[in-house]
Amino acid sequence: MNEITPASIGLSREDLPNSYIGRSVPRPNAPKLVQGRATYTDDIVLPRMLHAAFLRSPYAHARIVSIDSATARDVPGVVRIFTGADLAEVCDPWVATLDHLKGMKSAPQYPLPLTRATWQGEAVVAVLADTRAAAEDGVAALNVTFDPLPAQTDMETALAPGTVIIHPELGDNLAFTRTAETGDIAAAFAAAHKVVEARFVTGRHTGVTLEARSIIADYNRAEGTLTVHHSTQAPHMMQGVFARHLRLNEGDVRVICKDVGGSFGIKVHVYPDEMAVAAMARILGRPVKFIADRFESFASDIHARDHRIKARLAVDAQGKVLAFDVDDLTGIGPYSVYPRTSAMEGNQVVNLCGGPYDFANYRCTTTVVLQNKAPTCQYRAVGHPIATAVTEGLMDLAAEALGMDPIEIRRRNLIRDDAYPFTSPAGMRFEGLSHHASLDKLLSMVPVARIRADQEEARARGVYRGLGFAAFIELTNPSPFMYGMGGARISAQDGCTVRMDPDGSLVAASGVTEQGQGAEAILAQIVAHGVGVPVNRVKVITGDTQNTPYGGGTWACRGAGIGGEAALQAAVALKQQILEVAGAMLQAAPGNLDIIMGHITDRATGVERMTLGELGRIVYFRGDTLPRDINRELVQTRHFITKEYPFAFTNGIQASWVEVDPATGMVKLLEHWCVEDCGRVINPMLVDEQVRGGIVQGIGGALYENCLYDDQGNLLTTTLADYLVPMSAEMPDMHVGHVETPTRESLLGAKGAGEAGTAGAPGAVMNAINDALRPLGARVHEQPFTPERILRALGTIA
Amino acid sequence: MIAISLNVNGERVNRSVEPRRHLIDFLRIDLGLTGSHAGCEHGVCGACTVRVDGEIVRGCLVLAASLDGAEVVTIEGISDSGEVADLQANFVARNAAQCGFCTPGMIMTAADLLAHGGTPTRAEIREHLSGNYCRCTGYQAIIDAVEDTFRARDATGGPAAAPGLQSSGAGR
Hints:
- The structure holds two protein chains of two kinds.
- Chain A is 28% helix and 23% strand.
- Chain A is of the alpha+beta class.
- Chain A has three domains: 6-38 and 493-640, Aldehyde Oxidoreductase, domain 4 (2-Layer Sandwich); 42-149 and 212-260 and 266-300, Aldehyde Oxidoreductase, domain 3, CATH 3.90.1170; 383-474 and 646-793, Aldehyde oxidase/xanthine dehydrogenase, molybdopterin binding domain (Aldehyde Oxidoreductase, domain 4, 2-Layer Sandwich).
- A seven-stranded mixed β-sheet of chain A has the order 3-5-1-13-10-11-12, sandwiched between helices. In chain A, strands 7-17-16-15-8 form a five-stranded mixed β-sheet. Chain A has a four-stranded mixed β-sheet with strand order 20-28-29-30, with helices on both faces.
- The longest helix of chain A has 28 residues, at 559-586.
- The longest helix of chain B has 17 residues, at 140-156.
- The chains are: A alpha+beta, B alpha+beta.
């Protein structure tokens, strides 16, 4: 069932004009973006709408002594002011743990805190006014007295005796810990020819969606319904969250998600200030809008990747990996984030270290601790960039210790392409990967000999360039193994309804969502392909819980693999249904008919018999002329969930070519390559662009991005002038290649592609920098690799 | 409140504004021109880029009260006039927009480069767009789309002639 052949989906020829799988079809929803005609949440204005602004804690940890809002109430335009106690009357708190993360703990969290603020930037009081400006005037007029408390900011001391315990009822600051151990670590290290070790740091950074978090909640008291316009990746999940915590029926909550200005995992979480907006709308019975400003984004969007990793690697004399031993520590802020939890990133580090390689002995521990900083949670490529940097950094250290080429040590250790199915020492099951084919493909793209010659010639001139590699695996198409098993109401299943309208055009409603990756484009391609119509006859509906089948939304690279498969199955079912009706009309066996470019054709001869528009006209308006008992439902719904494997892993390898200026410590990116295997490629252009955008986010974390706090827990990077993001002048051209190993779990065979770039880029850039610095005897393993850190490694500065 | 009279996308606009009203809020909230976006409100990200008296500016750094008598062109105006229909078509063809939030600002900034003519190198295009933040694309497709537009205009001797709205790129 895996191959898309004419027989498998009822098409007549492989290269029909309407065979859209594998073609770079432009996105049908792109023209509105380039003309400024998209609809983001802040573009929506509702009657009687109020605007929310929040007073946010100026302290990392403080007791809320008193809230005096008398002056604020008199500010022109201010309508209402809400405290944590006010909202707790209508909104129940949440605790973000998952049952299958054994021993995990966190504290109840409210929309606004009742007694204590636990990070700088936590929303404490809400002001509603008739404009955002007036609401901010109201916030400025609030008189809130805080009693500052000692802050626990350093993750290294979070579990030390005498430390500040952020939630005393939890007993300590340990949110979660897990160790995976396979084989005999002690024996492997004792027997090793070489052991290398390093201390890695990945800098706390954040997603910086250009459209900030945005929400309008509107409670209609007459209907008892809550309608939420929300910039989110998971409308159905949020429908359930709003219903559950505001004590409503799910059916009375509708989440509408039109255009989303970037998400990257930032917009798949429950934010207390957004819950506050819904609670205020519930109380007032009128719409409330909240659009985070950039300061609020930096201080209250989830952060990620705040890890310190001590790791070592044992190899034998031939360069074979004997063992990885990894100790990961991560600080996640004062609360685990609902409902995915903030333990998943550390858990992924445990799952993924050493992932591309065939070896026997493994130990990895993650320790997840609380701290008084902004909460962290899942951001694009959750845990992957960390695990990849650790794994690939150690592989390069081992190659150097052995005097072996970095390509050769990888070739000797990558899991063989014929070894599948394969279970990694961390317990991950791989259905089919292509590490060696991907490496070969990469080496056909990267002119290694020319680069090495250039490198040598440049060094002679005092110019230091380096080439770095990073192989990676990526977890996509998650099953309930990821969240559902732990008790979270997060759907791993997704659905699609495809219907034919009277003029023969198709409408596909899907539970996955569009945030710019091109989900709607590939769904249109798949449906056009499955039914047999021109792709511009397919309209795709996403982002509306009232009008799409229940689904998980778009995260963890599941849109194409899960949502796309549901769309394909629904389209194939609709085609069969259409042909059944057509057979009755044309006095032909349905099996002797086909649909090509919107025409019912004779399968054997290709002769056009009737248009879909004509079939639609008869079914919808002259149903009296059809046989009485014929099934005339020109609409089909299918759902899909993976069953054989917990995740569909993908793989790939990246290469980075950089120049480091030893005088300034500046890194110049010269060129970047990535080969990845996401299974069936539905739209090569969109996959390439996902990879490129992902690489640049990985580069951001490697070189520039860092949420910096002082030791009192004050956030120092609160504007885009302080927090550096990759801009066009610094970014390299990127070459993307593909190997296709379709998953056998689905007809479509697609796996995810959105996180591969981010997973591998930091490791590749790190190894390239260290390759450049090698003649100077310097190394860096602490991200971001700022000029300061590079100069310190060079001994230029203390 | 301060009374201002200005021309926005070829239409006369008379309004009273608060002295603190920024151009981006004036356009979005007072005039309903939601194609321009507020990204950072510090003049860094470029999402609010619009044209004032022929030069591109940051809508979040300009006060509406200062624009009495000014001529303002936004993404809506530049789309309707057809000035950048070729650039927009190339953005679609190259998938140079993903979430699209930065895209109107990118188009306005690229239009500024195109209006200056010549044949810039990729590095010069990157430099000109370096004040516009895009989180999704990694920039390469945007540079490609702008470069394609310069090449096509070089070949045809000028900007795309056809004014009006471009049609969907789908189905090709």
